[in-house]
User: Fold HEAT repeat domain-containing protein from Tahibacter amnicola.
Amino acid sequence: MDIFTLVAEGVILLTICVVVMAVCALLSRWFSERAQKKIRKRRTELMEQIRLYLDGKEDVRQVMSALRRDSTIGHAALLSVASELQSAERWRLYTFFEQLRLDRREFKALMSRSWMKRARAANHMAYLGTPKVVPLLIHALDDAMLDVRLAAAQSLAQVGARQAVIPILRALALPAAWPLQRATEVLVEMGNYCLAPLRDFVRESTARREPAATTVAIRVLGMLRDRQCVPFIIPFLKAQDPEMRLSTARALGDIGDPRAISPLCSLLDDTVWTVRSAAVQSLGKLADRTALPALAGRLGDSAWWVRFNAAQAVCLFGQEGADILTHTLRGHSDGFARDISRQVLEEHGWIGLEPGVPS
Assistant:
């Protein structure tokens, strides 16, 4: 047998192997897709049966029997339907979770060595519709993994566990941008439930004690526009931490209480430009004429964003603001102040409308 014959036979054998492998892969994919399709169909059927039960059109025993036959698919169907309900309505499904022992499965998973299983269980607990989950989720806030703590916090927010507000704050408020943002979002989701505990936390706090948690608390109070917290958060405009001063300035602007005007004007001389910028934006939101001279004084600030935000805030006062910017454009000694006044006047279509204003 010559070399060419050997090569040809090798190529044929290799081709046959490739074809067989391709057929096997296609068959495997076909069986997998068929199985998944069957699971999705069964899950959809169970979900529809559960919805009929919620509408009073299906007997609880029939639904229970169907869920028992396919407990894994039934578990997923129950969680899906529960996720469609308002938190206060989820208790109506708890009888299924309890009698099928699915709640115990989630409780056990929360103690798993796998952090992914713990996180998934913490996430599912929001759908069980029972207050039994609250102490377990609060305990999960001490988990070593941030993802588990975050899942527990989100579930606690969904069930409206007021007693969990401060534990959530301390579990998520870490000195980094991402956890601070997530902690703020979770607490804002709780709504007015969290106002009183956060107000008490800020009132008893100091700038040096738990600065990240205090910053988050102030942000949430501002986003929820809690006027009662204003006297307690104003002192934090003098905190050493720039992030805390900035968050406090923004919160006061969001709340819109006139008691903040004078303290915010004092913040316009802050050494950090981001803090000054937040202060001028908040004064613009407050829209009080007593702040106009202070805002006009920032048109010549060394930071462009401060000048820009100050000019935008001045514009919010209508013709009075336009007059200030026009006067600055005509005769201010600072070139930066003239430039920013021209830019903002142009943006608002006011440039050249008044006699004598250069265009």
Observations:
- The chain has 20 helices and no strands.
- The mean pLDDT is 90.
- The two ends are 94 Å apart (CA to CA).
- The CA atoms of residues 17 and 258 lie 80 Å apart.
